[in-house]
Amino acid sequence: MATPQPIPASFAPQNILLIKLRHHGDMLLTTPVIHALRHRYPQANIDVLLYKETRPMLQAHPAIRHLHCIDRNWKKEGRGKQLRHELALVNAIRQCRYDLVINLADQWRSAIITALTGAEVRIGFGFNKRRNAFWRRAHTHLVSTEKHRDLHTAEQNLLALSPLAIPLTGWSAAMHYDEDDWLKTQVVLAQHQATSKPYIVIQPTSRWVFKCWEDSKMAGLIDALADTDTDIVLTAAPDKKEQAMIDHILSLCHSKQVISVAGQLTLPQLAALIDHARLFIGVDSAPMHMAAALDTPCIALFGPTKLTQWRPWGERNQVIWAGDYAPLPRPDSIDTKTEIRYLSAIPLEEVVKAARKYLNA
């Protein structure tokens, strides 16, 4: 493929589409790109294509005009209905007449949609697994992924802006919610007879057990912080396994100074809860990324995840890594269905000490 023509400084897109088809935390880490685009092209409309279930992460963002959604349940409706959904999506996207498409995804579907937009500038990544003619033709500019291994996911995303000569540093992540989300969250807290005292949010759960700390240590942390004149609020997804983990942790607690709203809040309501907290403590999960994006002080417990890529993105964060206390397997070798809790190497007293340091600051 010939070297693409450089994008002139006079290029001023009116309609921009950003594509990312991943999980909740991934979507939050696209917001630095959105902020950089808004700053560079203040007149442009910015839309995002994402999976429907991740929509709450961006739905209140003031810089976004529209969210195009792919529903992964379409495939359950049969091939005929799925095809109609896909065609309707492509038609809706084409009608927006995008000048600039930035494809942060690595799926074939994202490349097909990028090509079908007909946008003048279509930027993607030159993933090693996508070295073929179609991927090259779907994009007008491909950005090397050679440095991805050494970069945070937010920095990887920002690299896609290289052909546009937009500065790649200085862009923060953000999680937005509506005032009504905070009002509804306060109602939920009141139903649990929460006091008006400041509170700490603790998220012990993840969809993957290997990312979780021991239940007994979580209970010990709650008991240790019970004398800090703060309420403690536990959160989790509605998933049955996560709910069972929360119930087990509560059964191990001696302190009654703990409230569980696990599974009772939407993601924007959870954002409102975290935003008003004195401190967030949690494992590698979407709520951890939300805390960092909301600039709430955050203590993140990590195991054999790619720490460079997935640490909290922000300034008020502390990572406690199990690898500092015991050997860990390579992240790419992990069986994600394992019941092994690799975070068990993290000492309880280290997390308590870190929490007290934030609370006494």
Task: Describe the secondary-structure layout.
Blueprint: E1 15-19, H1 24-28, H2 31-40, E2 45-51, E3 66-70, H3 79-95, E4 100-103, H4 108-117, E5 121-125, H5 133-138, E6 141-143, H6 153-159, H7 179-191, E7 199-203, H8 215-224, E8 231-234, H9 240-252, E9 258-260, H10 267-275, E10 279-283, H11 286-293, E11 298-302, H12 307-310, E12 317-321, H13 348-359
Helix pairs in contact: 7-10, 8-9, 8-13
Q: Could you name the key traits of this structure?
A:
single chain, 361 residues, alpha/beta, 6-stranded parallel sheet, 13 helices, 12 strands, 34% helix
Q: In whole angstroms, how far apart are the ends?
A: 56 Å
Strand content: 15-25%
Low-pLDDT ranges: none
Q: What do the pLDDT scores average to? A: 95
Secondary-structure content class: alpha/beta
Number of strands: 12
